[in-house]
Design a protein that fits this description.
Chain lengths: 116, 112
């Protein structure tokens, strides 16, 4: 079946511009996560959505970062006024979760963002 | 606050030898622990998880991990390494809610 997809796969932008990254989760998955992976480093949690609950935004590094999710479907991560330190691979993942469950996440291929 | 430590940036092992990739965690409450692997030019893939029950967990590709509550560790192991196991390995922990914290990753090199 279809996995998690992300678009664009690569994005080059100029400092100060806004960018939008898109994630299409696996159909039926209730939870959706965004992570940032800087070159040679681990995954940094940004935000997650679970069903109709309020999202956990505790990992967003600044108010320039925001994310939305439409129901249990597509999500967009928006970075306003991009800075060079925003350059990274942005990974999206989804999982099927109930109130008390601990299922694995399925990751997309990522969007490589380069801010010049 | 929950955290995960992978003390080794890199692990080198000869093909056919056993391998261990270390992970320690810090959480309040019960830990739910995961291992993921990132092969070159491929996305992250789930390997195995510990939720409850038997401390030895078996996963994909012959990997296993041992949960040790007293040492707050969840080391990844394989009895006989393959060159194709060379990849970046991430340990992750959840403790309450769905927020997942990943370690910094350990790069495994298996030499033929």
């Amino acid at each position: 079946g279809a996995g998690v997809s992300q678009s664009p796969s690569n994005k080059v932008t100029e400092k100060g511009k806004d960018v939008e990254l898109r994630c299409d989760p696996i159909s039926g998955h209730t939870a959706l996560y965004w992570y940032r992976q800087r070159l040679g480093q681990g995954l940094e949690f940004l935000i997650y959505f679970q069903g109709n609950s309020a999202p956990d935004k505790s990992g967003l590094p600044s108010d320039r970062f925001s994310a939305e999710r439409t129901g249990e479907s597509v999500s967009t991560l928006t970075i306003q006024r991009t800075q060079q330190e925003d350059s990274a691979v942005y990974l999206c993942a989804s999982s099927f979760e109930l109130a008390v469950s601990y299922n694995e996440q399925f990751f997309g291929p990522g969007t490589r963002l380069t801010v010049l | 606050a929950q955290s995960v430590a992978q003390p080794e940036d890199q692990v080198n092992v000869a093909e056919g030898n056993p391998l261990t990739v270390k992970c320690t965690y810090s959480v309040s409450g019960n830990p739910y622990l995961f291992w993921y692997v990132q092969y070159p030019n491929r996305g992250l893939q789930f390997l195995l998880k510990y939720i409850t029950g038997d401390n030895l967990v078996k996963g994909s590709y012959g990997f296993e991990a041992e949960f040790n509550k007293s040492q707050t560790s969840f080391h990844l192991k394989k009895p006989s390494a393959l060159v194709s196991d060379s990849a970046l390995y991430f340990c992750a922990v959840r403790a309450g809610g769905f927020k997942t914290i990943f370690g910094a990753g350990t790069r495994l090199f298996v030499k033929a």
